[in-house]
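To fix ideas, we reproduce below one chain and its tokenised fold.
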Amino acid sequence: MVTEGELDAVAANQLFDGKSPVVSLKNGGPSAGKDFKAALAKREDSNGAGGKPRTADQRVRDNLNDCLKVIDNVEDPKQLVQGAEIKALLKKAIALLTSK
């Protein structure tokens, strides 16, 4: 699923219980083509010639860090309920992955 906003992506991910991949367009709908091309090029560079595929733990850790970035960049605090608690849980989860 592709959404226009980061918070929309988080909400969609929760709606589908993480069972469906969800991405957010960096600059909204008008830049969709450019964003897709850049993301595809980045993916091919990181997993292409000589690139090392990420493990499941690395992918989960990266996703958790992305969630932290979304929370940190919320412009209107009213949009985020229990932000501090969510951040604390995310950091605990990252620490668990790191300690393996």
